[in-house]
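ugh ok fine here u go
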Amino acid sequence: MSNALQITNLTARLGDLEILKGIDLEVPFGEVHALMGPNGSGKSTLTHVLMGNSDYEAGGSALVGGIEVMGLPVHDRARAGLFEAFQYPTEIAGVSLDDLIEEMIDVSDDAVRARQRTVDAARLLDMDRFMARAINAGLSGGEKKRSEMFQLAVSAPKVAVLDEIDSGLDIDAVREVAAMVEALRSPTLGVLVITHYSRILGYMDPDRVHVMVDGRVVESGGPEVAERLEAEGYAARR
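structure:
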């Protein structure tokens, strides 16, 4: 199976601070992988670098469906098939979710298919009641994550990086978001779920779990890795 995301020797500095120290990571098409790590391990920096945040001095390679995205502007990374769901989705006053989706359809390679994906995803995720509202305005944490999963389904990326999508959610919302991720599994999509805790993974079926500590991936394996982390914590891996 080919890789949706192939990261090789990815490094990142912020001024004199070295944050990513040579990340190697693969996410094949059709699989859901989890990246776990303590605060300060570099997980958020990884997402920023992948999406092209210019604050960082970055090196190495990141292939999205075989396309090198390092060095590309943000919009070209998105066109290559890279999608990020944010830990804290931003409210955008004056722009409705329907407006955003129409723009996504307009710039898609196949507007007919994109519109059908919109209809299907709106039904699956029960989104009709949110379409006329300003993006994320007045929504609960779970509703914001539902909106992002809807946008993911419509955009049909090759890679979805889900940055702490369980952050700030109650138990029911965590279970719901996990079910959405599983429902969006596809042989044309690779998913990287970034999280501190194994809680959300208990409601999912991750294919692989990677552990990041101090800017490096120090362990990879099956779901049992998350179970060991729950019992042992991160201290033994520092």
